[in-house]
Structures are given as structure tokens and as C-alpha cells.
Amino acid sequence: MPNPDPSVQASNPGKAAMSVLAIRQGNLRDMILAIGALKAIRDAHPRAKLTVATCPETEAFAKLCPFIDEVISDLNHEDKKRRTNRIAELRRDGIDIVYDLDGTRESSALFQAFKPRFGSPPPWSGPAPGAALPTPAHAPGTSEVERLSRQLIAAGTAPQGSEVHPDLAWVRPVLGDPPRLQPAYFGITGAYALIALSGEKPKSAMHWPKIEVEGLCQRLADAGVTPVLTGPTQAGPMAQSIEMETRIAKNITTRADASQLIALAETASVVIGPDGAAIQAGGLMGTPCIMLRADTAPLRQDAPLTPQKIILHDARLETLTAETVWRTMSMWNLFPNARAS
Fold it and tell me: Which of 96, 104, 128, 280 could form an SS bridge with 111, CB 3.0 to 4.6 Å?
């Protein structure tokens, strides 16, 4: 049962809510990890119109989600007038409860913006000072799914002891599993490995050097496995260079949209890379994952949500060699039908 705390019950409109706003303005990786929380919000407010405030990068993917009714991407727009107009529109339409799933300083600042001139803002779940449904403090190292689960339990939205585990199984059925979701659409045949590049600059702890990526691509190709490169837009130039120079890798960094990336992560033999959309999607779709983790990186790095994972880590990714990654894959026997290298 939901949280029995009377004060929570009084603040959370539950099934009576007719309009709900959830704020999730991060990148695709962040949206993927929040899908379980958004489904829990939908289940707690079945009659409500669920509006999700996101950013342009994830807007198209959020619009595919079958339990989201409306998606907006200008709540944090650089044009102040546009931001102000959007907030005013939401306030006029009436919001029964707001979930700040980002929990950042920027998203918490919106709490003040939603306050009417007279009276109180709608019940607010998040870390903003004065929120009716405050988010519990979390210890360092808490995963994103754990954090979101605790937030929704504290808000009386999710049952005690539950975990708002993300699920991406709806992606193919919603789209009708068209040819564009198949590996062949990108010219990929047979076994392939999805290699996610971080897009970070060479001096970053999260940058995996080009020479190591090329070395891994060569080992995969020698075994009859196609290396497929993905990553954010910033990784595009490096991926393009590797594709052109090696002639053995497929570069999809600027070709695959969110749904295609998820579909490719599902049917790959393995997903390799740092914490990002590709490895989180692969874990959720049941694909073996090899996560490359930099211990000195300042950002939280969540392990893929699958028991089929190996985490290779060092102070900086530049010290993780292609040989180390390849030996890990070889011991795991990920390509039983590929030719021996």
C-alpha cells in the first residue's frame, strides 16, 4: 500500500488528480532511467493528464511513451519570455501535483516560479525548500533508480519497499517493429557489438582513447563480429574517423534515433562503454554489458540494470586497454558462433 502517513495522503491527490506534471530534463540516459518512475506516477494518477517537461534531445522519445499524454521541452528554454509563458500556461491550466524527478538546483528553482501570487503552489515532490512532499536525503553512491524509488515512496505515489524499475519492452510494439529497428537497416549482418563512446574530451577521465577503440574493433572484426559505434553527437567526429580509417566499424552516432538505439542494444551480442543511454538500454533489454568506469569521474555512474554485466574500472578510462576488454569478452564466451580469432 502507498505511504500511510496522513500528511502525505493530504498532500498527494492520488486518484483524484486530473493534471500531473513531471520534470525530467536530462539526456536520453536520464530519461531511460526515469521511465519506471513515470509509469509509477501514471499508475498512481490513472485519470490525470500526465505532462512531462523534458529537453529537445529527449522530446521525440518521450512522445513515443504510451503512458505519457503530453511532452513539453521549453520549461527551461534559454528565452526567458518563453519560459515564463510556459509556466503561466501550466498554472492557468491547473496542476494538481508536480514531480521534480531531476532533483537539481535548476529544477528546484522552478518551485518558486510555480507559486501563485496568493495561496500555495501545487503539491511538489522534490528537494526544493518548502516542498509539500520533500525528497529524502540519499547517501553518496545511491543509484538513480534507488533515488527515484525513495522519492516516490516518500510522496505516497509508490508502495513501500517498491522499486520503480524501468521497462523498455513497449518500444518495439508501439512502433510496430518496423524495418528501421532492425540491424539490417544500418547494413549490419550477423553478430555485432555495440561500442558506446562517451564524447568526452581527451583530457577527461571518461575519454576512452581512439587507439584502444580501434584495437577492440580490430579484434572483433577478426572474430567475425561487426563493431558498431554509437554515442552522443560530440562522439561523432571520433566515430567517423574510426570508421573511415579502419573500414571495419559501423558508425551510427548521427544515424540512430532513441528507438533505434534501444532496438540495436536489444539484439547486440554485447554493449560496451561508459554509463550512458546505450549501456542502460542494453541492460534493460537483457543484453550482456561491459561497463567502462572511471573511478575519478565527478559524475555518478550507475551500473547497467542487469545481472549480465562486468564492470572494468580504473582511475581513468585511458588506462583500460583494448586487450583487457577483449580478454573479458573472450572469457565470457559472448560470440560462440563467431569464427575464432
Answer: 128
